[in-house]
Design brief:
globular, 2 strands, mainly alpha
Amino acid sequence: MERPQDDVASGTTPTVWAPLEASAGSTPGASIGSGMGAPAPAEPFPAPAGQAVLARQPQTPAERQRRRNRDVAPIVPTRVPWFAVAVFSVLAVGLAWLVALPLWLSGEGLANPSFQLIALGMMYTPTVATLVVVLFVARPKSIPRLLGLAPLRPLGRTLGLCAAAFVGFPVLAFLSMLLGQAMGLIDLDLVGLSGLEAVVAASGVEAVGPVDLTTIALVQILVLPVSIIASSFAAFGEELGWRGWLLPNLLPLGTWPALIGSGVLWGVWHAPLILLGYNYQRTDALGLLLMVGWCVLLGTVIGWLRLRSASVWPAVIGHGAVNASVTAFLMFATPESMQSGVFGSLLGWSGWIVLGASVLVLIVTGQFAKRAVPGLRGSEV
């Protein structure tokens, strides 16, 4: 593969990048396809100039994509840019604490009226950290390609994995609750819908007229796709950082160290909210440790979507689907379990089991050994 040459005029040497390989065991920087990067065999008689130019011009979308991959190729660095990783980590975590500071200073914690707005703002701190790094610290030749924003080709693979995330994570969330009930970690009321009844009563809707809980539950399920799409806009703020920038920049360490390392930092980033009792109702190190462990498991599955698609969009949809479905399915729990049944949901022990089983299936089927080449189907590599 061709590599960027030193910038003689400026006296600086740019970061050397290599494209994603077809297999995780491939050597970074190796050529993609047969004969790529090797000198062309000599012809016995030189072709006319016009024919030679036409012969060198890519004729198919796959050939044009290979040419772009060869010329730009800012997908995976050949070595970890540790200074850039440090800057990204400090900015992402530091800005998260800065945004969440009003929750701590007010003394209201999660009860602060601005909690939802603050949490949304916090989700975009990894994006700010990413933009600072790619613009001022370690700028690649193509920012969209490094972050997995483009190319979308092959569209079928990108949309297929987005659809798998869109449907798969809500299924995993519901299975986690069923398993949680079997383990005695949560009480579900799928018939009486007492939890939903309590939510409706608290909202004051019952005072307006009679309420059909079954209809409300059905509407909640039917609008779940809309909730996932809306949640994905917020999830984009995180995923552009965690799976868009951090994961590929840690890949020179190996697939598993990159997945685990990005998951650990993702979990630590949640500290400003977790230490206020968010998710696990604990304000100590154990609550944060639980969040880190869960983020490693979930981040492995979402990270696989990123690597298997060479695109950040399936990861964005997956993250949005998790956030939307966990909240929506709580209406099937009893009022008591809606407050204390977190360990019987996707966030808790049953969720750890379901996510762990998902990771195991991906390992057994060899999915982590398959890494997509941007813009190319497997048959085109």
